[in-house]
# Entry
Amino acid sequence: MSNNGWRAFGNEIATFLFQTSGVRKTGNKMSLKNLENVTYYDLNNKINIPENGQIPLNKDQEALAAFLNQNVIENTMVFRSLRDRFNYLLANDYIESEFFKKYDFGFIQKLYDYLNDQNFHFKSFMAAYKFYAQYALKTNDGNYYLENFVDRVALNALYFADGDEELAMALADEIIHQRYQPATPSFLNAGRKRRGELVSCFLIQSTDDMNTIGRTINSALQLSRIGGGVGINLSNLRGAGDPIKHIDGAASGVVPVMKLLEDSFSYSNQLGQRQGAGVVYLSVFHPDIIAFLAAKKENADEKYRLKTLSLGVTVPDKFYELAEADEDMYLFSPYDVERIYGEPFSYVDITKEYDNMVANDDIRKKKLSARELETEIGKLQQESGYPYIVNIDTANNQNPIDGRIVMSNLCSEILQVQTPSRVNNKQEYEELGRDISCNLGSTNIVNLMAAKNFGHSVETMVRALTFVTDHSEVDVVPSIQHGNDLGHTIALGAMGLHSYFAKNHMEYGSPESIDFTNIYFLLLNYWTLKASNEIAKERHETFYNFDKSQYANGSYFDKYIKQNDEFQPKFDKVKALFDGIAIPTKKDWQDLKEAVMKDGLYHQNRLAVAPNGSISYINDTTASLHPIINRIEERQEKKIGKIYYPAPYLSNDTLPYYKSAYDTDMRKVIDVYAAAQQHVDQGMSLTLFMRSTIPEGLYEWKDGRTNKMTTRDLTILRNYAHKKGIKSIYYVRTFTDDEGEVGANQCESCVI
# Structure
């Protein structure tokens, strides 16, 4: 009898208890809808109560064991054999048959045998809880689990390999060892018959006419319905008071459109299963910028106040220049700019054209202090965490692709070129533009650094992501489908950077940590380029307008070929960490340049770093590239209460290297992200963590001034990020004085 489905639990299972309809189920003492007398929540909560001055990490392992025994084992459907399991899943429409039929069943058994032999175990209660609560396939009535982690890995490998047995085995190897983690929608939906999209993040834009505004609102409804977080660029819309052709009236500006979008997301919420999520972007030089920011304030007029819609601002270099000089700035009418320049407002380089626009009397404009606007941005970031900041000139100056980046997404890491659409009175596309869907995946830094073949691992990940971009069908928004078909874009990122630093005794933001980050992302860049070139060669196909890119003329590679020592490890400690991992030489880059110029690249974009939510817990690693918040993180889970998650690899040995983000100089965080950004063709979700009372000595400019966080602090950090080449800033998160945490969270000096 196959013991499929149980190896991932360890050796807890000795017998199966009863049989029904050819399917074995474990005891029916409880169901997932009626869990009584379980102990794992209480055990997990005890982590937060120090014992003799120590953090009782053993309680987390006890909670994990109790969860597997009391919840998972008791409520998992088990089958006589692997074939019986797949017959049941196929017959009851739990999984698709198309991908399954591409494999001989003997191979599927071989794949499972390999996966089971890896003896996968969750390392924490949070990892197991998150997987079974959010990712594991369940019966239609919600009473039983139909898969464990091995099963989910197997479906991902089989589905994304698309019949290629060698690739399926390679993918299974990457995912079971948690070197690669597909993004949540891909990992969750792979192979399922009744599923959502494999991507769940989209970028669309509106131009300055009622037809396109209407189409944008419809697109927001449709994308929210299928589960997407939606970024929307409104910078092209005329400002409040601008004329409307053919009628004696004036435009209402962007705020009413924002309200319509917020209501759209609220309405289109997957039958109440999730809150629709969207972000709107506006240029800092748009005449409605003050009203745009004011709509998010707590004391805003209820008619205009935005409660759930996120805000982002695109900021050209000219704004930083004017603010630094303490000069006035002009806000320009998008209607007039488009009329004069013949293209929508977002597509005009304001830094380059600013003086010409100021001098042009045919462009309406209004004036305000650049520093006053800078202060307003800081005030709102203190109050709400918004707006996100996209340094739009930085993004475009570093962009090797022909075209213009005009916005970002809900998490601020996707930065790709777009083109506007033109819609007629019948809501039909007279000109189909290019918009964006986000196709994400992450490397787990700790585990990838232990890989036998770094390059082969990355190539395997690229091929999995390529399947997603090739099979993404978002026909409800043709501009997104069009952009995806032309660009074949992917976004491979990373998680677990702070885990890696702590495990290897490096302080976050130290010169050694920056050196490591530089080389790690250089390797991701090199190997994704190699993989993309290989796929282009195999398929005899490149992304649209490859011939107009800096890849095609070879200039993209010059900085690597002309390198001195900046792209080799500087410190002995870092050299030792990369021992056994080949770091590209100048000749390697020269050879890659020639190969790319000859055969091209399949993917327009390859890299981006997402914020990594629950998926990082399943990987038992720290999220994204930012520092931890607490050594024992407190999570509020719906219906359950608080769950505590100890930092990965937390021990007396690593304790000194796990400093809270709130106690870390954010310039160190920016320095780490900047080391990665120079190799990342898109962006990164960079969050700033601030305390409302700044720790003494953290920022030298606070000496002799108030220790309370001010807008000046945020202004200094935003400008520092801009000067370091950071393309975007995600949230500003503030830990306020009245939200202190208790127990081990507060006892940061506890030993283990």
